[in-house]
Design goal:
mainly beta; ten-stranded mixed β-sheet; four-stranded mixed β-sheet; 6 helices; 16 strands; about 10% helix
Length: about 290
């Protein structure tokens, strides 16, 4: 892993605004933009257009499993996330969410329909969400919502975590069903390579990244690190399992977790979304149960 995480974002209030001028929390587009959401690229010369692909990444934490801050070995069977209103933008000046300034999009394109993806897709480092024809240029901002799917294995849950956790001789099979809708507005991808530089006639990609160690912590990180200090861990969830099973939505978690642990969980959810190591502005679209 190439990051040193800071958990200050994990405590961000759920009422934070995305500072977007649109009701759907997508980046705003100036009226002189060469293309806006929903418009066609047909009016542009072919040599000015490429293909922009959006991908999602649950990192090795999802693909390979990991040990939580409190010693539970977590392995996922499925991590379903439903993304909607996925919007890529060429922002000028560059968008820096942590500074609280409004995103100024010169050009933006969006995927048309919500997509439910499984971040645990076998053999995939990243999972394709969709692609769109787009004007060439540098896409340095990405926004998306996580919404309730109307069908499929995660029906009703923007985020569904399924798997098992083991510690010593104890095993807990879990289905953690997050029914709170969220929205993320992010700046430039931060990682080992640059993303979003779309050249005419070519393909480029952007990545929505999910940091599940924010939720469970990481045994390979110091206990005093901000990441582990802010994480819930798995022990509070194991404590409310019955006969080695935990099947819980937010209403159940609110009822069974301590008030402090439940509030910690709710405070962590908006910090899950990133662009590589790049931070986002996050908000709850609706309150949790």
């Amino acid at each position: 892993m190439y990051r040193k995480l800071l958990m200050g974002a994990g405590a961000i209030a759920l009422a934070v605004s995305l500072n977007s001028g649109c009701a759907d929390n997508s980046p705003t587009t100036k009226t002189d933009s060469p293309i806006a959401t929903g418009q066609s690229t047909e009016a542009l010369p072919a040599e000015a257009v490429g293909t922009l692909e959006i991908r999602a990444n649950g990192e090795d934490f999802v693909r390979q499993g990991f040990t939580s801050k409190d010693g539970w070995k977590i392995e996922f069977d499925h991590v379903y996330a439903t993304l909607a209103a996925v919007t890529a933008a060429q922002a000028d000046p560059p968008y820096e969410p942590e500074k609280g300034k409004e995103l100024q999009a010169q050009t933006q394109v969006s995927l048309a329909d919500p997509q439910t993806i499984d971040l645990k897709t076998a053999g995939a480092e990243t999972v394709r969400v969709g692609e769109v024809k787009a004007p060439a240029g540098r896409y340095n901002a990405l926004a998306w919502k996580m919404v309730k799917p109307t069908d499929g294995p995660a029906k009703g849950y923007p985020l569904l975590l399924q798997g098992k956790a083991t510690k010593d001789s104890q095993t807990v099979k879990f289905a953690i069903k997050i029914d709170q809708e969220l929205a993320f507005s992010c700046g430039e991808f931060v990682g080992d390579e640059r993303k979003g530089n779309l050249k005419p006639g070519e393909k480029a990609d952007l990545e929505a990244t999910f940091h599940f160690d924010h939720l469970f912590g990481d045994a390979e990180t110091a206990a005093t690190d901000d990441l582990n200090q802010g994480a819930l861990g798995f022990a509070p969830l194991a404590a409310i399992a019955t006969d080695g099973q935990l099947d819980a939505d937010l209403a159940t978690l609110k009822q069974k977790l301590s008030p402090a642990d439940y509030q910690k969980l709710i405070g962590i959810l908006p910090s899950l979304g990133h662009v590589g190591e790049g931070h986002c502005k996050e908000t709850a679209i609706q309150a949790g149960a």
